[in-house]
Amino acid sequence: MKKSMMMAVSAAVMLMSASALANEYPLTHPFYTPDKGQGISQTAYRYSECKAKSNDAKGLLGFKKIKSNRENEDYAYGLTNKWTLDLGYEHFYDKGKGKMYPEVSDDDVKTTSWYIGFSNKMVDNGKTFLKGSFDYFQRYGDVVENGQDKGFDLAVLYGVKGGWADPYVRLQYTNTINRGSDNDGTGEVLLGFYKQFSRKFASNLAFSYSQSTDRIKDKYTEASLDFRYAFTAKQALILGFATQLADDQKSQDVVLATGTDKVNFKSKSRNRVFVSYVTTF
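Above: the chain's sequence. Below: its structure in token form.
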């Protein structure tokens, strides 16, 4: 009888610990995952500016200044304590001044995309965190040929809790099917450090590198810093800044007046600011 009672108490403690682990991260933490029957939403706005140019072996072909506005709405709903349903949309608007050859016009660019997918929290023991996700997306707009692009994202988030800050790594691969048949692939590595200064105030520092594997070779490196303030346990605000660390480089075979040639594209001085509002439901 005494032994059975001790086993029952141990089981209750284990259940309470598991529940605590499921909710131990604050709303602003990268590891935060909604429990079963709960949800989280994030409304974000990003503004960026950059300078870009294109050239071939003979010299400069074009130069352009680009201002970009992006609006995002993202939702995650807990199907279980480990599985979440993820969905959202993005609208961006690029306004350019100048012309990037081989563009035939200097029109502003508007594009809208949406996605739906699932995430699985595979490991969460209070010290180590591991989550994988899969999303399917479609994109419509001015830069999309034949009406729409579609594709999928695969991502893995791994991190460790404890110490001065909580470090984490995010690996992501994006495959886009566009122009009716072409497959474009892009891989990204993000290294981040999350620091909780108090119950309400936190900060996040991240470095990212991405490279495409499609016919347009693209490399991009960025650093970002943001500050996160939780008004309550269910509402938070994030303010941040990001800057380009190295020239964004692309190369593409383009049909010119003199024949097919390789054109290089470069962007520099790309800076962006962002703000987002996070809440649970």
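Helices lie at 2-22.
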